[in-house]
Specification:
Layout (H helix, E strand, L loop, with lengths): L1 E2 L8 E5 L15 H8 L3 E2 L6 E2 L5 E5 L6 E3 H4 L4 E2 L9 E6 L5 E3 L6 E3 L2 E6 L5 E3 H4 L7 E2 L8 E3 L4 E4 L6 E4 L1 E4 L6 E3 H4 L4 E2 L1 H4 L10 E4 L4 H6 L16 E3 L14 E2 L14 H6 L5 E3 L8 H6 L4 H8 L12 E4 L33 E4 L10 E3 L8 E2 L10 E4 L10 E2 L6 E2 L3 E4 L4 E4 L8 E4 L2 E10 L4 E2 L6 E2 L4 E4 L6 E3 H6 L3 E4 L2 E8 L25 E4 L4 E4 L32 E2 L8 E5 L18 E5 L5 E3 H8 L1
Parallel strand pairs: 23-33
Antiparallel strand pairs: 1-8, 2-5, 3-4, 5-6, 7-8, 8-11, 9-10, 11-12, 13-14, 14-17, 15-16, 17-18, 19-20, 20-21, 21-22, 24-25, 25-26, 27-28, 28-31, 29-30, 31-32, 33-34, 34-37, 35-36, 37-38, 39-40, 40-41, 41-42, 43-44, 44-45, 45-46
Length: 640
């Protein structure tokens, strides 16, 4: 051991790393590289062996450039000390230079190892850690650019709300001894003022510019721009954020806004899908579906067996839920002139069972297809639906039975008890209780993984509290079936999970549009839907074309033939509200000479001919030869 001293011929000079403290200007300038150099300064103190960093502001270095550096507070350490814990003898400042030598502090009792400074009794083996011996405020002081007064670290751990991130923490805080109730958690206090998001998120999120730490972000400005979330971890912004100073178009906080990522925490994206990969579940369904051609029923019932298809194609299928025989349409059949669903050619062909598009052969169609009143078609896999669903999770008391329509419902339109969407396709029903669900909701799995929440598995459950869906940001009502992350309490509508595919094609764009959960990187200006031409919140999921830089509402993305005239009644519903309705069914009433067709009402349809209510964005029965139109309730009353 040796007494800690520095060569008297080498004087120490004081260095101030924050000469402009406490001034802080939130603007980009040419001195950024110098600021990065200062912030990146890290060196071990040659006395206490702890780190000297930018937030300490002051340090002493050897004037003769011999790499000797010490804290400002360490420079004031006396070489001898009289301490109340050992009043018999004087304590002398020693450097324990034996690397593996273990000793214990006589005050706190904590174990220490060599190569550090301590106070030791000159006559016995009593040792004291210098931080316990000199527990003064000066040793725990940092100079933070966000505050006009120096901040002092608390001695003991506390649990309180951090002024920087707005969250409640337990641990060491930096507090202002001048201002009342100003606390910053130690991890937030030592955040870097400049940040490359690639480094903070393990390259999962990227941004081309250096981000600057902003100490204020007005709440009113956030609300004006849809309360933008963090681009790195999807949390709502608090007071401190990292923003991009180069992308400053107004309104533009969404581009480059990054929430505080405290040092020592796991960065977003590191170890993604750990839960899923560790479980190694072969049957785990990963969402969203790749495109519109895939759905839940295809996932469970599709059988790609050539022999089975060939044998079935030789005879017509007498399906129990349709009054006419069904024939299989293949590429080699005589009916191959029938076009499949193709939005680019304005051709629409929807399955009567699951209401999803039929985009490829083989599929089944009614043998009486020449009769325009029977346009019944089915996916091949929809003919495999079981007749009964016993002990369905949402209605375990009674067995649900498969029907092609509900006789008790006018035009066979019912509201699904799971997804809450109107439907006129196949239905699983408990007639006794009036419980009806569409066939897709009849096979919802217990667990799924979704790209919008990649870290954890989502479990099927009944919502006990009202939580917001991470895709559409609407509340999932209590007692509704939903998917929820049991660790993060993130929630997902069943309809958003299964009815929003990852890729879609739309006739408004020749390219494929992709589902996006975040604002688009380097997007300039506000977001407008190319179909309805209304502004939308990019926090809600939407479809985007990377080639044309065009975006559309997720609910507008479902339109095929109706897109010229029809828009969704509510753009925050996530999915098109009539996605489970097959339009075009024909109905007759006694008081009108022409056939009425089931359509969605538009502005030109005006008001109901019976009750004078507006028909816009409602399911209506409309005469295609004159201006006569009725809403469903009035038409049902006139039909009885």
């Amino acid at each position: 051991m040796e007494v800690v001293e520095h060569d008297n011929e080498h004087p120490l000079c004081l260095v101030d790393m924050q000469p402009d403290y406490p001034q802080y200007e939130e603007e980009y300038d040419d001195e950024t590289d110098d600021l990065v150099r200062k912030q990146g300064f890290q060196h071990k103190c040659d006395r206490c062996k702890k780190e000297i960093n930018w937030f300490h502001r002051y340090y002493y270095k050897c004037a003769n450039l011999c790499d000797y550096l010490i804290h400002n507070s360490c420079a004031d350490l006396p070489l001898t000390l009289k301490h109340t814990s050992h009043s018999k003898h004087n304590l002398i400042l020693f450097h324990v230079n034996y690397r593996y030598y273990e000793w214990y502090c006589g005050i706190c009792g904590s174990g220490r190892k060599g190569d550090m400074v301590c106070y030791q009794c000159s006559e016995c083996d009593f040792k004291v850690d210098i931080h316990c011996a000199m527990s003064r405020a000066k040793d725990r002081t940092v100079y933070h650019p966000s505050h006009q007064h120096p901040l002092v670290a608390t001695i003991n751990e506390h649990k309180c709300k951090c002024h920087a991130c707005g969250e409640e923490h337990k641990g060491i805080f930096y507090m202002c001894t001048t201002c009342v109730n100003y606390f910053i958690h130690s991890k937030c206090a030592l955040m870097p003022e400049l940040l490359l998001i690639q480094q903070a998120t393990n390259n999962y999120r990227s941004h081309s510019h250096l981000l600057t730490l902003s100490y204020s972000f007005p709440r009113g400005y956030q609300k004006a721009e849809f309360d933008p979330p963090c681009r790195a971890n999807l949390h709502t912004q608090h007071e401190y954020i990292h923003i991009c100073p180069l992308v400053d178009l107004i309104p533009q906080p969404l581009v480059g806004g990054v929430h505080l990522i405290p040092l020592g925490q796991r960065p977003f994206g590191a170890g993604r899908l750990n839960d899923i990969d560790n479980l190694n579940q072969t049957g785990l369904l990963r969402l969203p579906f790749v495109d519109e051609t895939y759905n839940l029923l295809k996932h469970y019932f599709f059988k790609e067996t050539e022999n089975e298809i060939c044998e079935t194609s030789e005879v017509a299928l007498q399906y129990s839920v349709h009054q006419h025989p069904l024939i299989l349409v293949t590429t080699s059949s005589t009916s191959n002139l029938i076009l499949c669903h193709n939005p680019m050619k304005k051709c629409q062909l929807l399955c009567n069972g699951c209401l999803r598009p039929i985009t490829s052969m083989p599929f089944y169609m009614c043998a009486n297809y020449e009769d325009q009143h029977c346009n019944f078609v089915l996916h091949e896999w929809c003919t495999r639906l079981p007749d009964k669903l016993p002990k369905y999770p949402g209605h375990p008391k009674h067995t649900l039975t498969l029907y092609s329509n509900i006789p008790s419902k006018f035009m066979s339109v019912f509201v699904c008890r799971v997804c809450s969407l109107p439907c006129n396709g196949f239905v699983y029903s408990c007639v006794q209780c009036g419980y009806h669900i569409d066939v897709n909701c009849g096979f919802i799995p217990e667990k799924v993984a979704h790209e919008a929440h990649p870290d954890h598995i989502l479990d099927r459950c009944m919502a006990h509290t009202s939580l917001k869906c991470i895709l559409c940001l609407n509340v999932v009502p209590k007692n509704k079936m939903t998917f929820q992350c049991m660790k993060c309490r993130k929630c997902l509508h069943t309809k958003c999970a299964f009815l929003l595919p990852s890729k879609i094609r739309h006739k408004y764009d020749r390219h494929i549009l992709s589902l996006s959960y975040l604002p688009i990187e380097n997007h300039k200006g506000q977001y407008f839907c190319e179909i309805c031409e209304e502004e939308f919140n990019p926090r809600r999921c939407f479809y985007h074309c990377k080639e044309c830089k065009q975006s559309i509402h997720s609910c507008c993305g479902q339109f095929i033939l109706e897109s010229e005239t029809v828009t969704s009644s509510s753009h925050d519903v996530g999915v098109y509200e009539f996605v489970n309705i097959k339009f075009g069914a024909i109905h007759k009433i006694q008081n009108h000479p022409h056939d009425l067709s089931l359509v969605q009402g538009i502005d030109n349809d005006g008001h109901c001919s019976e009750c004078d209510d507006t028909l816009r964005n409602q399911l209506i029965l409309k005469c295609l030869l004159c201006k006569f139109a009725l809403d469903l309730k009035c038409c049902e009353r006139l039909s009885t």
